[in-house]
Design brief:
37% of the residues lie in helices and 18% in strands. The protein is an alpha/beta fold and 224 residues long.
Amino acid sequence: MAQTPKGPAGDQPDEHEEPVIRDKRRIDPETGKVRHPEGGSEADASGPDLAHEELVDVGPADSDEFGVFLSDDDLDVLSGQATSDQLAAERLADLQRVTAEYANYRKRTEANREIERERAVGETVKGLLPVLDDLDRAEKHGDLEEGTAFATIAAKLRTSVERLGVKPFGAAGDPFDPQIHEAIFQQPSPDVETDTVADVVETGYLVGSTLVRVAKVVVSVPQH
């Protein structure tokens, strides 16, 4: 009959020996305080004979009894290195910074969306510019007399274009601006002290802040 092996001292092993439980949580669940490691190695603290130990981790080292992980700031408050008011001020500053970043992001997004809308409208209106130019020429020649069918159609077309946010610009007497005016002819004049629009050959158009077309103008320049 096989014999039951004996331990080092000749004793029978204890089949009912309880496992050793080590609580590695940094926060004491009973006192709520941060635990500080005591001197000595784990081998010294665990005893001389661990041949039959079963080590059981009660929980993560940085979590509380509910398994919630705590930040370094939280641990500082619990250990007395920082006050709750300081932690609240830091959290408020973080929240204010994130709120400001989101507000700036939303403004940029809305601005970019508006620019894209203006560009899309501008591309559509470019196909109507030759018609609008013909209406301007007809008006200069007196062909758009008030009350005529032609004048009514012209007014409806211009109103529809304006509802899209399209604004015409360029008129005699305006200061010459090379950013929005194209000078097709210059004529010296004793009546002006700075470059001034004398006549508009083609009207310019804007959609919001987007330039659809510059105005072609005749410019009066000062005499020297």
